[in-house]
Specification:
- Pfam families: GerE (PF00196), Response_reg (PF00072).
- InterPro entries: CheY-like_superfamily, NreC/VraR/RcsB-like_REC, Sig_transdc_resp-reg_C-effctor, Sig_transdc_resp-reg_receiver, Tscrpt_reg_LuxR_C, WalR-like.
- Keywords: DNA-binding, Phosphoprotein, Transcription, Transcription regulation.
- By secondary structure, this protein is α/β, with parallel strands linked by helices.
- The protein folds into 2 domains: about 1-130, Rossmann fold; about 140-220, Winged helix-like DNA-binding domain superfamily/Winged helix DNA-binding domain (Arc Repressor Mutant, subunit A).
- The chain has helices spanning about 10-20, 35-45, 60-75, 90-95, 115-125, 130-140, 145-150, 155-165, 170-175, 180-190, 200-215, and strands at about 1-5, 25-30, 50, 80-85, 100-105, 130.
- The chain has a 6-stranded parallel sheet, sandwiched between helices.
- The chain is globular, with a radius of gyration of 18 Å.
Length: about 220
């Protein structure tokens, strides 16, 4: 896979390069800031972009804003956002704008190399993978919505797990349930939220988030 990295931390940037190249991927470029990311994308045509949220010069939201710009201009380019914190407002915009081939992971929670590499491949193939903390905060914003309030604690747990990209089998193992029980919870969740189940778990959850965002009376300021 051809991968472009945009990460200001030298240690993390070089670590990612070594990790990806050892796994057989080609790092077409590794940037320390976002100033020319679109030019580099056009020049190298990467198959995946890994973008840090906070980049020079202010180390606030340059990276995530650049990610949104990339999604607007190149929605076909798979994107993985790495962050130290959940930038809730921007995460919502990314999800609502174009959820496919999207990942948002917190750096400190990436602890398994094999799982990380598998996540990259899932994103390249069109999946959407969100860190559980990202999912939790996005769902929390919508607690005022009566549909979200109608979910049981177990259904919320299943919903968050689906959003992480977990299969019914994986959720069953995680929660010590049968796959049939997970299917029943999933069906109940989408019935309560007024959505039809389409067989693609993580995208269904992202559709839910987008649906609740678009039909709520107004956004809550983070």
């Amino acid at each position: 896979m051809r991968i472009l990295i945009c990460e200001d931390s030298v240690l993390l940037r070089e670590g990612l390069i070594r990790l990806l190249e050892d796994a057989g991927h080609l790092v077409v470029d590794a940037l320390s800031e976002d100033t020319d990311v679109m030019d580099v994308v056009a020049r190298h045509e990467p198959e995946l972009l890994i973008m840090d949220v906070r980049l020079p010069p202010t180390y606030s939201d340059e990276g995530i804003r650049a990610a949104l710009k990339v999604r607007q201009q190149r929605p076909d380019l798979p994107l993985l956002v790495l962050s130290q914190y959940v930038e809730e407002r921007y995460a919502t915009e990314l999800v609502v704008a174009h959820a496919e081939s999207l990942g948002y992971l917190l750096k400190d929670r990436v602890t398994d190399v094999t799982e990380f590499l598998e996540t990259l491949e899932q994103i390249r193939q069109g999946a959407t993978v969100l860190d559980p903390e990202v999912v939790a905060q996005l769902l929390t914003r919508r607690q005022h919505d009566h549909r979200m309030q109608s979910l049981t604690d177990r259904e919320r747990t299943v919903l968050a797990a689906i959003a992480e990209g977990k299969t019914n089998q994986a959720i069953a193992k995680l929660l010590h349930l049968s796959e049939a029980s997970v299917e029943k919870y999933t069906s109940s969740i989408f019935t309560k939220l007024g959505l039809e189940a389409d067989g693609e778990g993580n995208r269904r959850v992202l559709a839910t988030l987008a649906h609740l965002e678009n039909t709520s009376q107004g956004r809550t300021t983070p």
